[in-house]
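Dear H.,

Thanks for agreeing to be a second pair of eyes. The structure we're designing against is below in token form, covering all 298 positions.
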């Protein structure tokens, strides 16, 4: 987005109560002029889509940056006064090994990142890679995809090593030094109200969920038109979203009763942990979170 357009947008937002303004950016696209302009627009947090710090993995994903590019960007951000930044990593990329994964984690330590997101690589069956994997082929990296067991090991390695660096997990995919947790993401996981603006933007206000058009023509024709999501059930969301947090949730008495079957099932299996009035995923449960959370969608 051109800086003048960003400035025009942010000038319309009352900024006296702003706590966190995040800009997402691709490594290698930052310039001192651009970052200074972001800062002047109120941006105080930048999320870098790094994915990996190793050359072989970056080539497989079509990324053009290098580890040194990321280090340069981080230094630039700090020099200009933006000390709060996130680094995205992906576990399960083609060609990824335990050694290459640890190399990426070494860079996290070297850069002293305050926040790290670790996502599991998901293959769309309709993509070139997905179709090739279904056919048992080797093109597009299909022949060098890590096994599910290895990907689970990579994730658990990240949890252990990041914790040792002082960057503990606070949500399934997110890790932060104390005080650097993502405020806007916490709003989603804690079901706090939020307003979304733009194409296919979603909002949650006064217990109502609604979204704008996901088609450009429809959105431009009526940017203020909203579609209400009537399928959302607050109790289901409390579990489905809240259990993503390491702190877990405190179900209401009604919820303990309503969801007694899946709670008992997964607690007995060692995937959920009950502590006083709270409920959270166990370390093993985190690895099977999708299957567990789906049981709370009645």
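And this is the sequence the design step returned. I haven't edited it by hand at all.
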């Amino acid at each position: 987005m051109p800086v003048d357009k960003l400035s025009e947008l942010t000038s319309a937002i009352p900024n006296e109560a702003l706590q966190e303004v995040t800009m997402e950016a691709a490594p290698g696209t930052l310039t001192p002029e651009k970052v200074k302009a972001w800062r002047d627009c109120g941006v105080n947090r930048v999320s870098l889509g790094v994915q990996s710090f190793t050359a072989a993995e970056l080539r497989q994903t079509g990324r053009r940056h290098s580890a040194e590019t990321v280090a340069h960007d981080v230094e630039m951000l700090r020099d200009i006064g933006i000390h709060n930044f996130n680094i995205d990593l992906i576990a399960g990329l083609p060609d990824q090994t335990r050694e290459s994964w640890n190399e990426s984690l070494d860079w996290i330590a070297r850069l002293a990142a305050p926040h790290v997101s670790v996502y599991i690589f998901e293959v769309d069956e309709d993509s070139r890679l997905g179709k090739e994997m279904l056919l048992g082929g080797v093109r597009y990296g299909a022949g060098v995809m890590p096994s599910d067991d290895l990907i689970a090991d990579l994730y658990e390695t990240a949890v252990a090593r990041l914790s040792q660096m002082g960057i503990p997990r606070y949500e399934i995919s997110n890790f932060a030094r104390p005080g650097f947790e993502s405020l806007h993401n916490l709003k989603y996981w804690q079901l706090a109200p939020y307003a979304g603006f733009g194409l296919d933007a979603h909002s949650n206000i006064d217990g109502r969920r609604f979204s704008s058009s996901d088609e450009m023509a429809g959105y431009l024709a009526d940017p203020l038109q909203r579609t209400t999501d009537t399928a959302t059930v607050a109790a289901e969301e409390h579990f489905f979203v809240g259990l993503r947090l390491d702190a877990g949730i405190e179900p209401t008495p009604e919820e303990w009763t309503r969801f007694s079957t899946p709670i008992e099932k997964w607690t007995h299996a060692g995937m959920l942990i009950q502590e006083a009035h709270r409920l959270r995923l166990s370390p093993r449960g985190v690895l099977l979170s999708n299957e567990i959370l789906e049981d709370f969608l009645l």
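Two observations from my side: Residues 91 and 120 are 5 Å apart (CA to CA). The chain has a mean pLDDT of 90.

Warmly,
E.
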